[in-house]
Amino acid sequence: MTKAIFFDFFGVINLAGELNTEVADFVKANHDKYKFAVLSAAEMDLQSWLDTKGIGQYFDIVQTTAETGISKTAPEFFIIPLKKLNLQADEVLFIDDIETYILVADKLGFKVVLYDCNANLIDQIKAKL
Hints:
Number of strands: 7
Number of helices: 6
Structural class: alpha/beta
Oligomer: single chain
Largest sheet: 5 strands, parallel
Strand content: 15-25%
Mean pLDDT: 96
CATH class: Alpha Beta
């Protein structure tokens, strides 16, 4: 059973500097059903950006490689939020637009979606839940 959804930031939540409203609407509509996290290789204050877009409060964890000092290609990067949220890998869906990161999460046992566009994202998410 899926208990949490982890999103990448650049390329999934942030599309060319703009909020992906489809993802934001999904998170807002489902914040009472799932835990949400942002896992990113970004070098900026993601929480502030999410707050200014009105969705920061819906994320239980916002984690970057800069904060952890761990590469997003390292399994440990994904294990940190699992421990913080008391989850098992198979209880989490991870969505990213970079296959390398998807492969790391998949090897750990996460359900994964390789993001390519909004046209089918919500259907892909629902299929994995």
